């Protein structure tokens, strides 16, 4: 009997030792099972990638950086409702260009533009540039004498109301058409309309905008406003300075 008791005790110890080799877990049915060691071949878990940071928004164009009223500002807006102040204003930095005059920055921009056109085999010529107050007095008087005041005011500005007096406006020609509507149909005219903004020039009196600018379509009349503003006008598809800056339309002289 003693021998049987000893054998039973030894068997119990062996069973207990075996059962302690692995931890016991319960399966879904409540049956105790040994937990398996994690496999080294199991795929590692990965965290989801953080969302990409959106690119910064393009800076808003500052429409207040230059004056629209000061006569010597590159952005001065002159139309039939916005005369120069004083009416007899004359720029202080006029330089000669092709026998005519423009303000220094505009003159260099005109040289650059015509040179770029020439590199494309096109000849863009400067036909008219700065006109003094006194010159405009004579021009307007002659137009009134020929066509009457109503028609003259569509074609020529009153003295003190002309962009040419700022030294920032020019009339250009080429392709066999100078200072005429046909300029728009020439290769030179199309090039100026498409590429003028690269040099700071805009077609100031576009087609269909007479009710805003007060002047009929003049594809030859360009105005220097600087590359930044000219590019923004082109990018936004804005026809006129009046519309871009939220100024009143000027189809005619007040009063």
From TrEMBL:
What sequence ranges are listed for the domain D-alanyl-D-alanine carboxypeptidase-like core?
Answer: 100-226
Q: Where is the composition biased (Low complexity)?
A: 25-51
Q: Which GO terms describe its biological process?
A: proteolysis
Give the enzyme's EC designation.
Answer: 3.4.16.4
Which keywords annotate this record? Carboxypeptidase, Hydrolase, Protease
The answer to whether the entry has keyword Manganese is: no
Q: Does the keyword Hydrolase apply?
A: yes
Question: Where is the segment annotated Disordered?
Answer: 21-64
Q: Which GO terms describe its molecular function?
A: serine-type D-Ala-D-Ala carboxypeptidase activity
- Enzymatic class: hydrolase
One Pfam short name: VanY
Q: Check the record and name the InterPro entries matching this protein.
A: DD-CPase-like, VanY-like_core_dom, VanY/YodJ_core_dom, Zn_M74/Hedgehog-like
Q: Which CDD domains match?
A: LD-carboxypeptidase (cd14852)
Protein name from the UniProt record = Serine-type D-Ala-D-Ala carboxypeptidase
């Amino acid at each position: 009997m003693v021998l049987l008791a000893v054998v039973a005790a030894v068997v119990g110890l062996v069973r207990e030792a075996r059962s302690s080799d692995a931890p016991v877990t319960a399966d879904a049915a409540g049956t105790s099972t040994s937990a398996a060691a994690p496999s080294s071949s199991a795929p590692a878990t990965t965290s989801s990638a953080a969302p990409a940071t959106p690119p910064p928004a393009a800076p808003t164009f500052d429409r207040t950086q230059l004056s629209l009223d000061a006569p010597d500002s590159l952005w001065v807006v002159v139309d039939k409702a916005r005369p120069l102040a004083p009416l007899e204003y004359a720029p202080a930095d006029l330089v000669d260009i092709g026998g005519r005059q423009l303000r220094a920055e505009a003159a260099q921009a005109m040289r650059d533009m015509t040179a770029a056109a020439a590199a494309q085999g096109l000849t863009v010529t400067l036909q008219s540039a700065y006109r003094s107050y006194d010159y405009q007095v004579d021009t307007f008087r002659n137009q009134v004498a020929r066509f009457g005041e109503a028609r003259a005011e569509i074609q020529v500005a009153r003295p003190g109301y002309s962009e040419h007096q700022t030294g920032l406006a020019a009339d250009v020609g080429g392709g066999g058409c100078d200072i005429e509507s046909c300029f728009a149909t020439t290769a030179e005219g199309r090039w100026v309309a498409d590429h003028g903004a690269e040099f700071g020039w805009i077609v100031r009196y576009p087609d269909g905008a007479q009710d805003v600018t007060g002047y009929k379509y003049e594809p030859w009349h360009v105005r220097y406003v600087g590359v930044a503003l000219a590019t923004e006008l082109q990018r936004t598809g804005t026809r006129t300075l009046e519309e871009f800056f939220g100024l009143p339309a000027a189809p005619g002289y007040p009063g």
